[in-house]
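User: What would this chain look like folded?
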Amino acid sequence: GKKPLRQKIVEELKHYYNGFHLLWIDTKVAARMVWRLLHGQVLTRRERRRLLRTCADLFRLVPFLVFVIVPFMEFLLPVFLKLFPEMLPSTFETESKKEEKQKKKLNAKLELAKFLQETIAEMAKRNKADTG
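Assistant: Here's the prediction, encoded as structure tokens.
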């Protein structure tokens, strides 16, 4: 069924609250990592990726805040998200968007694997013809 307007607004507010809360937590963790880097410790690959993602999220937050601060501009947010899908920080993504990204990555990997298999099969045929 269709949800009432009040429920939709409450869900959106909860979504933004949770997104800002997660971004705050990521920022605190990233600050600790930067502190460790400044004191000569080495980050793991996973920590480095998380630090880069958090920094990118903080840079994406600047244009996103314009939509939150300027009155009634949040109504234009879906239009801008269609034009610039990577504009939102990662903590604000919905589950459906995450699943869609994973499906795209999986399809790309499958296409690459298929291409590599065909290439190897062709090279094997060519080598067999050369030696035979």
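The chain has three domains: 1-41, 44-86, 95-131. If you want, I can go into more detail on any region.
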